[in-house]
Design a protein that fits this description.
Blueprint lengths: L5 E3 L17 E3 L2 E3 L2 H7 L5 H8 L4 H8 L10 H18 L2 H8 L6 E3 L18 H27 L3 E4 L3 E2 L1 H16 L4 E6 L3 E2 L4 H7 L5 E3 L5 E5 L12 E6 L10 E3 L5 H9 L7 H16 L9 H8 L5
Parallel strand pairs: 1-4, 5-7, 5-10, 6-8, 7-9, 10-11, 11-12
Antiparallel strand pairs: 2-3
Helix pairs in contact: 1-2, 1-3, 1-4, 2-3, 4-6, 7-9, 7-10, 9-10, 10-11
Length: 322
């Protein structure tokens, strides 16, 4: 029996965007498909008349009925390629509808299942013993989308003469430490990244002592907004020009203002950054301590003397940061 965090069924409600019937069209090879269902069913056939009938069907249900009609002759190897066809359709759906791509990415690493009671190949079935291939494909698409957005941010950053890593105008522990960490990571990848704050930014009064006690590097102060920026712990433009913002990393809900945003529901943005880069960057004990602090700060919003709690933090968060 599959254990899942997210179960969806049909195209209705807050999780309806995950369903193949959801009203999120996309182009593929010059053809517009109203839904994933239209695309998937049409790919079963080589006959242009049948394909056109499915593609032009008024609803995904009608498209499905035509595609499932056994009187129509399917391509011979469709059974062998159907999972790949489904993956390609779902991927394009999310690629070309960024608002739902953000929703999917925000689910982090949670498992996903199509809770169709009578479907045991694509879904989990009534007793939840089904193969759940739709859920698995959506998870693969989620990973692919994250990889593509991260690649976009890194590619643009490598082309830039210099990139300033900044947080919002009101800076807390997570924004400051995330900026510091990301600048170090990007430098290790050959990017001229600089840890910075906008001249108009201020530290949260409650976080000043912790920041001053633990931060080993003073951020550069920026008063010229005509630079290249990556945002941390924020994904709103505020006073910045969209053309100058190369991307954003945040654990808050995504606004959609910045096209290349990685926004996932983590304990802190620093922990998100850790999870994204842990395979390519060797975090020092000091850097891990900064991440512990951001998690504690964001969860409890407390200004405390953290030193006596170091060992306890290591124990409570070691499963998150290993």
């Amino acid at each position: 029996m599959i254990k899942v965090a997210i179960e969806f069924y049909k195209e209705f409600g807050p999780l309806g965007y995950l369903a193949n019937y959801s009203n999120h069209g996309f182009f593929k090879d010059g053809v517009f498909y109203k839904t994933v269902e239209h695309y998937y069913q049409s790919e079963k056939y080589s006959d242009p008349l049948i394909k056109a009938k499915i593609i032009n069907a008024e609803t995904p249900k009608i498209a499905s009925n035509i595609g499932r009609d056994r009187n129509n002759i399917r391509i011979s190897d469709f059974k062998q390629i159907k999972n790949q066809v489904m993956f390609e359709g779902i991927l394009e759906k999310f690629r070309q509808n960024r608002e739902i791509a953000y929703k999917l990415i925000a689910t982090g690493n949670e498992s996903i299942a199509e809770a169709t009671i009578d479907e045991y190949y694509w879904g989990i079935g009534k007793d939840k013993t089904g193969e759940n291939n739709i859920g698995k494909i959506i998870e693969k698409v989620r990973t692919k989308l994250k990889e593509e957005i991260l690649s976009n941010i890194l590619t643009k950053s490598k082309k830039a003469e210099v990139v300033y890593i900044i947080g919002p105008k009101i800076l807390g522990i997570d924004a400051v430490f995330s900026g510091y960490l990301l600048s170090k990571i990007l430098k290790s990848l050959g990017i001229n990244a600089k840890f910075a704050v906008l001249e108009e930014s201020t530290y949260k009064e409650s976080d000043k002592d912790t920041i001053n006690s633990y931060l080993s590097e003073t951020p550069e102060i920026i008063n010229n907004l005509d630079n290249n920026f990556i945002l941390v712990n924020s994904n709103t433009l505020d006073s910045l020009d969209l053309h100058n913002v190369l991307g954003a990393f945040d654990h808050h809900p995504v606004t959609g203002e910045i096209p290349d945003t990685l926004g996932i529901n983590y304990s802190s943005t620093s922990l998100l950054i850790y999870d994204l880069f842990k395979q390519v960057y060797n975090f020092s004990d000091y850097e891990k301590k900064l991440i512990y602090l951001t998690c504690l700060s964001d969860e409890h919003s407390l200004n405390i003397n953290i030193e006596p709690l170091d060992n306890r933090l290591l124990e409570s968060l070691k499963l998150k940061i290993s």
